[in-house]
Amino acid sequence: MSQMIRESRSFYLTSLIGNYLVALGIVIAGVVLVASGDRGDTMFKLFGQSIETGSVGIAAILVGGLVLVMLIRATMRSFDHTVAKEQPDRGTP
Prior knowledge:
Helix content: 55-70%
Largest sheet: 2 strands, antiparallel
Strand order of the largest sheet: 1-2
Distance between the termini: 23 Å
Number of strands: 2
Shape: elongated
Strand content: 5-15%
Number of helices: 2
Structural class: mainly alpha
């Protein structure tokens, strides 16, 4: 394992675990709201799309799932960036 990756490991682990726990908490809260039968008209705009639902829980599940997908993409991009800094000749034949 290279020096930069080794030094940034604790930061990555702390931020990843914290962010994923928050996103999973949103999804779990949404499931609990749906299971308890709580109703509430919800409408919000997300990335230019208007989303309207009769349940706050469904909206929470949607937002939590979206956050998880975005976190996974950002994590992979960050790992790729770190590895690319360690290997400056990466990508050249």
